[in-house]
Amino acid sequence: MTHNKIIFRSLIVLFFFAVNVNAQEVLTIENAVKIALENNYEIKIASNNSLISKTNVTSGNAGMLPKATATIVDNNGIQNLSQTRADGTVTTLNNGKSSNLNYGVGLDWTIFDGFKMFAKLDQLKELQKLGEAQLKMTIITKISDVNATYFDLVQQQQQLAALDTTIVISNQRLNLAQNRFSIGKASKLEVLNAQVDLNTDKVALLRQKELYANTKIVLNQILARDVKTDFNVVDSITVDSTLLLPQLTELAEKQNPQLEAQIINRKVVELQLKQIKGTRYPTVRLNTGYNFSESQSSLGFTTESSARGLNYGFSASLNLFDGFAQNRNEQIAKIQIDNSKLAFDQQNEQLYSQLATSYQTYMTNLELIDLEEKNEAIANQNLNITLDKFKIGTITTLEFRTAQLNYVNAKVRYSNAQFQAKLSEIALKELAGTISF
């Protein structure tokens, strides 16, 4: 059998593998990301948290608006009463009834609190931005997870095809060994070795199928859908080889969600210091209300009274001394600002370091793709030559098996090089905040 027939049989295996793929749902990376954005629990939770932060941004929550309250109090009593007057007269009453009814509406409005309310509103707005940054961070992380798991499946699918091909070759070797044994040109040992190697290849295929099925479950879990959902992925990995470190660094400085969160955190603690300093100023409140009261008593100089009307006024308070708590709170707030600056600098340096190391890995993996592609072509050519020699008996079965394994390993390494390069691309785009939604 010529090497052209080997290629033909391999193509048949790949054809039936492709038919099996087409019989199932072919999940594209775009659809996987879309499903994750719609279903993923962590994204939903982060989205709800962002909505809470947005809902909190109101003037009322900052303390700018007045508070109106309505009250009603109705007290009643039955008592045995005794009164002794100045002239010595004693008056008693058993089971005397009394009642006191008060109701009305009141309005209380803080019109000045040392500008704390304005700082509070600005802080709520920054917290809203922080919630949005955290949502973006969660989305980018989940999209990165989807991409990594998806392309892991692609490379595993490629390895399944490679193992299918090597089983075809091992079957050919076994048939050749059996034919040669039947005509007395080979020993039984050669047949047994061929059978053992074929079984070894089948075991490797089963292990790869197990890993492929388990990774499908992991991806379904990330997509928050039934883990038993069956699907296939595309059969190739395309790596973006145009990424440049200066452009990635510039984008990361503007779009990296972790860096953005540190900037917002700094603004939040600065506004917290503003609110604390506002306590040094007086607080002025306006109050008004309309009340009605009615009281009845079975014993006393006044047995019944009622009143209704408007009341209004204002109050002002100023903290003169609070045990140095004001100074202590301001000092703590300033330290928190320093910590936020340090956290930003730390995050910045960490980002530059991650970009530099990830980019170096990315460039190395691009070179490995070219090298492993050439190695695969060489290993394929070597296998074809070795098979021709094996058929005419000029090489041993060990040499043939070595060439066969070299071919399979070369295909696996080429697939893995593509996958590792794709992981580097994903990591760089995640750091730059540009991974596609």
TrEMBL record:
Molecular function terms, GO-annotated: efflux transmembrane transporter activity; porin activity
Gene3D superfamilies documented for this protein: Outer membrane efflux proteins (OEP)
Signal peptide: 1-23
Protein localization: Cell outer membrane
Keywords for this protein: Cell outer membrane, Membrane, Signal, Transmembrane, Transmembrane beta strand, Transport
UniProt GO cellular component terms: cell outer membrane; efflux pump complex
InterPro entries per record: OMP_efflux, TolC-like
SUPFAM superfamilies: Outer membrane efflux proteins (OEP) (SSF56954)
Domain of life assignment: Bacteria
Keyword Transport found: yes
Predominant location: membrane
Matching Pfam families: OEP
Family stated for the protein in its record: Belongs to the outer membrane factor (OMF) (TC 1.B.17) family.
Protein name: Outer membrane protein TolC
Organism: Flavobacterium weaverense
